[in-house]
Amino acid sequence: MASSLAVCRLHMKGRGSLLKCLQKADTFFRRNIGTNAVAAQEEKEGFKSLYAVQEERQEQAERSVLISCQSRTNEKKFLKYLSRHGDINKYFFYESYGIYAVVEFSNRESLASLLEEAAIPGVSHESMLPFKSRLLSLRNLGSADSPNQQSVQQCQPQTSIPINELIQRLSREESIDQQITSLTDVYQLTEENSRLRFLVCSLLKDIAAAYFPECTIKPFGSSVNGFGKLGCDLDMFLDLDGISGRNAKMPKSGLWLEYQMKRANSERAVTQSILSVIGECVDQFGPGCVGVQKILNARCPLVRFAHQPSGFQCDLTANNRVAMKSTELLYLYRELDPRVRHLVFTVRCWARAHGITSSIPGAWISNFSLTVMVLFFLQRRSPPIIPTLDHLRDLAGPADKSVIEGNDCTFVSDFNKIQLQSNTETLEKLLREFFEFYATFAFNRMSISIRKGKEQNKPEVAPLHIQNPFETSLNVSKNVNVTQLERFVALCQESSWLLQQSETNTPSGGKEGKASTPWGLATLLMPTQVAGIKGRKKRKREPASERIKSLLESLKNTNQPNKS
Ligand code: CTP
Ligand code: MG
Known about the structure:
Elements: H1 2-15, H2 18-33, H3 37-45, H4 50-62, E1 64-69, H5 75-83, E2 88-95, E3 99-105, H6 108-117, E4 135-137, H7 163-171, H8 176-187, H9 191-208, E5 216-220, E6 234-239, H10 267-285, E7 289-295, E8 302-307, E9 312-318, H11 321-336, H12 338-353, H13 367-379, H14 389-394, E10 403-404, E11 407-408, H15 427-439, E12 446-447, E13 456-457, H16 482-500, H17 502-505, H18 521-524, H19 528-534, H20 536-539, H21 544-559
Parallel strand pairs: 1-4, 6-9
Antiparallel strand pairs: 1-3, 2-3, 5-6, 7-8, 8-9, 10-11, 12-13
Helix pairs in contact: 1-2, 4-9, 7-8, 8-12, 11-12, 12-13, 15-16, 16-19
The chain binds cytidine-5'-triphosphate and magnesium ion (MG).
Residues 220-222, 225, 228, 232-233, 235, 323, 326-327, 366-368, 468, 476 line the site of cytidine-5'-triphosphate.
């Protein structure tokens, strides 16, 4: 949507014809993105700011409840039972250590009525912590149901399909562009998963509110920036801005009362003390919260735990407003052009398939770093697909001004002020050139900066230097070692080479339901690629025809179910 608008704005400026402009935008979508349902959806819905999305989702979450159900719950009976408290707006079932239902009521009174009626569990041999939450269990003391197939709940998937299935699915597509959009469709967060993320934040807020009734807990990072994959972690931010004293306005004259508050040495000490207490509460009282770790000495202190009912790995931080800003920035870039999201998803998935990224902390390149690398690459196209952060700052109005801990986090929030240039490169071309770009990037001398949109001299020694967009003296990829960077570069070389071979980029012609030979993007996601990289030096001397032959051989073998 944003992209078509941007193209529209561009053409309207030049020719002034709305009709032509709309036709151009439509052609743009068809040519570059294919008949993509996601893009069509975006086009229909129009642009919403991250702030507006968060407000709406938070409000929905506060009217919602999470219920653990039996595996063959009769859906009709279940809904009838709950509707006694009021209208249900939306509900869905999913599986995570059992079956759960998310139920959103039309208003809070209905929810209050339901909670009023819920019973305290009886205990005989053990004791219980008397903390009530909106996580409930459905009990049935009546005669056992024998529900017919139609009335048994259908579960919404909350995890993405395995990589082998994805490879098969992509192999059936007819162009690399379609493969890329298909990958995004499969991996992106669903509407239900997004709701569940906000509900978990809201449940956690109920715990934190015991101490801080004015607080909110907001998701940030990939849960909301548009680049989240089903199964990604849930980054949360405990927002106490309303009572931090940061924006407090003092009366100019007369009497006034103020709260007496304990003082601490630094903001960091305040954050640590708040997270320590909340972490303790989550550990002691939070139903379904397990494996709670307080990691308070990290650069950004956090409480990490698993929320079993949702299956989310959660990171709770406080006073992390810069990360909130970078989430907003990524969200804006994603909205500017659909190619941003498709390319980020593809590169993230490709990196994960080859162990370039990992869920375990270490010297790996992070998803956030990869995203910034994709954005930088798109800024370096000719003409650029997205503007630099400095340009977005220059377009900002007075209301957009934001300085956090001395860092200038200002950038424009009004999309209409952003004029995009007319770049119509296909996703296939962009993917190929992304690999080419980083296969030959001067990592030894240069730093990546989306603020400037140009490579900068490295300010410090580090194998990979990616400037933090807002805390500009920091390197986002400080943790990455030489080995990991070399693996990334080698994989880029290999992938760029593969995409140039006609054997790789020609559709295999598989039919729906039938196994087809991996081709195009599917080839790039195959683990055999890694072996290819290890043997790269040796294979360099082989004639190209030999290389292609052995590669095709390996693809055939992987495609045979018994051998894979
Ligand atoms: N962040 C940051 N600087 C870093 C690391 C992270 O500003 N060095 C911010 C980014 O806004 C990022 C968010 O913190 O999106 C969450 O970090 P992380 O969970 O590592 O990345 P995600 O983007 O959420 O990606 P993933 O799906 O891997 O969780
Ligand atoms: Mg994350």
